[in-house]
């Protein structure tokens, strides 16, 4: 357009205008030369991208692809149930995909309970019978139990007999008497009577002695009455305890003998019962662990949601990113190819208004 001037004759057009016309014709020539290659590229990309999008992406989104795979005979000599070792046609791709989207475990998704029975495999009762039989056959033999030997019993009896206290009768009689051989109060009374018959000096001396005797008796009573009473109580306690010592020793020896007989008779049963109770507790622990392991294995182990997410991610990458781009590419190339025809016509029609002519066709 820059080299085109309307008032110039076609035979006198400038080189710039002539170059523009040549470019128009060159474009027409290149269009004829390479249009078939462009059409072939559009056709190949259309066949690949369009069919893949329709048969894979669309069928994936509406689940028709899984329904096609689940149709018997689509894949010759292929059965998912036989491959997994399941009975009947219980396994199909659609159900597996839906279970994986719900984050189910492979045990539930693949119906592995039909192939492996956990109840039979992890049944503790089949071992409990064997354990019970073996336990019943077990014979518990203990060494003789001896709490007290005969010599020890004789020593205890001899000690109880030898531990009798002496006769405290005379001692108690002496304790009940006065602490002095004579009564100090009687002596003080006699001194007072004697003082009445004497003169003044002797009278005062005798009365003083009598008063001293009364004080001494009072002090003695205050100092010795408590300990003497405590001594009497201790003597009576020793006498009563010593009288029961032999009987208590005999009773204790009888209890020891009965205890020894009970241990010899019942100890094997006690040990057996306690051992069986311990075994039952261990079996309860084991059953609890097995229940926990079964629930974890069937519900939590090998959840297949990552598999479904991976397939969904493949679909997103392949369809939303790659196939959409491929389809957009062939669609754009198709429009370019479609516009080649009007561009050829327009270029041929415009070329004569730009190229330098040898003969002017002006009338």
TrEMBL record:
Keywords: Glycoprotein, Membrane, Transmembrane, Transmembrane helix. It comes from the Eukaryota. The keyword Membrane applies. It is a multi-pass membrane protein. The chain crosses the membrane at residues 23-56, 328-348. GO terms for cellular component: apical plasma membrane; cell surface; cilium; microvillus membrane; prominosome. GO terms for molecular function: cholesterol binding. The keyword Manganese does not apply. It is found in: Cell projection, Microvillus membrane. InterPro entries: Prominin. Belongs to the prominin family. This is PRM1A protein. It comes from Malurus elegans.
């Amino acid at each position: 357009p820059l080299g085109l001037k309307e008032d110039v004759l076609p035979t006198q057009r400038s080189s710039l205008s002539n170059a523009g016309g040549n470019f128009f014709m060159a474009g027409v020539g290149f269009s004829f030369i390479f249009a078939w290659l462009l059409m072939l590229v559009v056709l190949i990309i259309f066949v690949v991208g369009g069919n893949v999008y329709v048969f894979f992406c669309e069928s994936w989104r509406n689940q028709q692809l899984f329904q096609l795979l689940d149709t018997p005979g689509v894949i010759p000599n292929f059965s998912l149930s036989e491959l997994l070792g399941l009975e009947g046609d219980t396994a199909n791709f659609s159900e597996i995909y839906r279970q994986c989207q719900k984050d189910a475990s492979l045990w539930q998704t693949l119906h592995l309970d039909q192939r492996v029975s956990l109840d039979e495999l992890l049944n503790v009762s089949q071992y409990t019978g064997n354990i019970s039989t073996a336990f019943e056959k077990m014979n518990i033999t203990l060494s003789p139990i001896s709490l007290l030997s005969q010599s020890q019993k004789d020593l205890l009896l001899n000690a109880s007999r030898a531990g009798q206290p002496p006769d405290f009768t005379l001692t108690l009689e002496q304790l009940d008497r006065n602490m002095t051989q004579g009564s100090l109060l009687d002596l003080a009374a006699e001194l007072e009577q004697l003082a009445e018959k004497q003169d003044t000096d002797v009278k005062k001396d005798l009365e003083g002695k009598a008063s001293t005797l009364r004080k001494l008796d009072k002090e003695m009573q205050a100092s010795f009455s408590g300990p003497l009473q405590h001594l009497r109580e201790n003597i009576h306690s020793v006498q009563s305890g010593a009288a029961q010592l032999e009987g208590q020793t005999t009773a204790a020896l009888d209890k020891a003998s009965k205890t020894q007989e009970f241990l010899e008779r019942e100890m094997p049963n006690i040990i057996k019962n306690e051992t069986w109770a311990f075994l039952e507790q261990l079996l309860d622990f084991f059953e609890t662990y097995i229940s926990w392991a079964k629930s974890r294995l069937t519900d939590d182990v090998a959840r297949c949601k990552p598999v479904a997410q991976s397939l969904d991610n493949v679909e997103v990458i392949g369809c939303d990113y790659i196939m959409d781009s491929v389809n957009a590419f062939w669609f754009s190339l198709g429009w370019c190819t479609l516009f080649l025809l009007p561009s050829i016509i327009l270029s041929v029609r415009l070329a004569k208004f730009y190229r330098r002519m040898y003969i002017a066709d002006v009338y």
